[in-house]
Write a structure and sequence with these properties.
Two copies of one chain form a homodimer. In chain A, about 45% of the residues lie in helices and about 15% in strands. Chain A is α/β, with parallel strands linked by helices. In chain A, the strands form three sheets. Chain A has a six-stranded parallel beta sheet with strand order 2-1-3-4-5-11, with helices on both faces. In chain A, strands 7-6-8-9 form a four-stranded parallel beta sheet, with helices on both faces. A two-stranded antiparallel ribbon of chain A has the order 10-12. In chain A, helix 9 links the parallel strand 6 and strand 7. The interface between A and B is large, with 53 and 53 residues. The structure holds a DNA duplex.
Chain lengths: ~350, ~350
DNA sequence: TTGTACGCGTTATCAG
DNA sequence: CTGATAACGCGTACAA
């Protein structure tokens, strides 16, 4: 129960506390014989280092906080995985909090992180309306890096990709397939910056292709299978329904494809569906999903690397890295047929 | 940078440290006026409670450690989600580590958790060969609960389900569909107890139905889409290939279905595929997957509840809860046709 | 190579 | 209701 302390080990060994401490952190400063003796004793007594006391004494922690919208939904799992591994490699633990896309939850988490004096924080996206909190956080000395977004005019470090460009490309691709009414099912762009930027990319591509923007064709929803399905159902029940639907996440796309099937529509013969994320499953589903590949894992890894540099003071200024995305063409989209109105 | 401390707040307020502390933890013991004054001051000075120091002083932490095999793979995400929410509700933070199904990684994580003197630990499964470590852990005073498994003769608390029974039922169902050669694609049962129990359930159901156990029909692999696909390909290339395949996880099942499709086989017309987990996606894929529903989220929630009881000393003895599973019949399995040998 | 001694920011125990 | 003060377990100058 009551664990043995360094102090006690020292006493047992007839050494000072400092020597025992050095045994752990700077063994090269200890005479090999002593080292051996102390180690043996620690093993024998079942000594376990107290990281809390250590962190406290050193006045810095070795845990990194991570904020993600949701632990479900595969795609964040990928960046989280990247974060995990890199952090482990660098000797940091992770404390993870999910917000459920809720601003208040995020604020609460952020406070918790401050209370724990975490070494650094990785934010998924840059909450609209939370600029102040985050700036204050940084000013308070906790290094921060944002993933999944590129930030303009903000002193923050980030490693992201252009949500605008990615959405633009996919929409443009759909237009190149001769689709003129392109639906858009998107996450909560009112609150989430990266979703908003995807909307902008979509609109921009429409414009470039001389296509009108039809507000009724864009649906804002939560990025779940269920919502994707329901949104698609709405789109399909329109009198002049879209011939292609661009979903703001693969989850939404899968839900959408499911809705199409239920309605007796074939993808891509009767309607094209494109996704965003390229989660593993996109390549294995039926039909395989055309989607935007996002460097999720890499973002996670690089975010940790940068964060650790900041933590260790090797880097003072903010790092800004923008990774490329890529359209992965599989089988869920195809050229629009003239007169493709199918029985509904 | 250097945050203000309780001490300083006390000085500023002309009060004692103790009173300020009480302001936070037992406001009812403080005169309303004083309370108000202190709170105002804390807000003004941007005081942020130091949870590390608090935990250290109190000699217990308010962080729960969670060990999962992988952050990818959807299904653990569900139990993790349950854990998250419940923990948050109870005022605990989470530190999450993933092992990648690797025993050494798990041990390392466990050590880290001990070093941080975490309040409690939730293990996913009960690593074969790690009995000692875990028992020592418990003896050292860290409450532990295992999820995803039911444990026999072990002093540990758990909240799980019968992997044996679940696999038995599904196999039995497949047999009732007149399948006589039932393939099994399973996670690493050599190392993972719950996978091993699924294998046992499968064998037992075979026996009950008078079916021979054919070792070549069971494939041990990692539970990923890719491995599911490859395993299925192997199964399908056999001269006397199975007419139904039971996958030990939905991921494997999706991979398997993909392999079947690539070979020109239709599911379920040409071959039946069943999964295990019932992740969200199972209901939305094509065809919708027949699978075993596992109470993932509930396991997570209940595990936290039990753990917190243990932490707070309300419960001394181990709690053992077994949740039910259920077969969800969708469209990926059907009765075997006589003479169903299709062109391969 | 080793030891001494102080500090880290709270909590908790006693008095008042 | 409030105050003093001793822990808590370790890191780290500074000395020896």
């Amino acid at each position: 129960m009551a664990r043995i302390t360094m102090q006690q080990i020292a006493a047992l060994a007839g050494l000072s506390l400092a020597t025992v401490s050095r045994t752990i952190h700077s063994p090269h400063l200890v005479k090999p014989g002593t080292l051996e003796q102390v180690r043996r004793l620690m093993a024998k007594e079942g000594y376990v280092y107290n990281a809390t006391a250590g962190d406290f004494s050193r006045r810095r922690s070795s845990v990194i906080g991570v904020i993600i919208p949701t632990t479900r939904g595969a795609i964040f799992a990928n960046s989280t995985q990247g974060i995990q591994e890199k952090a482990q490699e660098k000797g940091f633990s992770l404390i993870i909090g999910s917000t459920g896309y809720d601003a208040e939850a995020e604020l609460k988490l952020l406070l918790q992180f401050q209370e724990r004096r975490l070494a650094g924080i990785i934010l998924t996206g840059y909450g609209i309306g939370r600029e102040n909190v985050i700036k204050e956080l940084v000013k308070s000395g906790i290094p921060c890096v944002v993933v999944w977004e590129v930030l303009k005019n903000s002193g923050l470090s980030f490693v992201g990709f252009s949500n605008f460009q990615a959405a633009f490309s996919m929409t443009d691709y759909l237009a190149s397939l001769n689709h003129r009414r392109i639906g858009l099912i998107l996450g909560p762009y009112s609150r989430i910056g990266r979703a908003r930027r995807r909307l902008e990319g979509y609109r921009s591509a429409l414009q470039k292709n001389g296509l009108p923007f039809a507000p009724e064709l864009v649906i804002e929803t939560m990025p779940t299978l269920k919502d994707g399905k329901e949104s698609m159902a709405r789109l399909l029940s329109m009198s002049d329904r879209p011939t292609a639907v661009f979903a703001g996440s693969d989850m939404l796309a899968f839900g959408a494809m499911s809705a199409a099937r239920e309605r007796g529509l074939r993808v891509p013969d009767d309607i094209s569906v494109a996704g965003f994320d390229d989660i593993d499953f996109a390549a294995y589903c039926n039909p395989p999903l055309t989607t935007v590949r996002v460097p999720a894992r890499e973002m996670g890894e690089r975010a940790v690397s940068i964060l650790v540099e900041m933590i260790e003071g090797k880097s003072r200024k903010d790092r800004r890295v923008e990774l490329p995305t890529e359209i992965v063409i599989r089988e869920s989209c195809r050229e629009r047929k003239e007169r493709s109105r199918v029985k509904t």
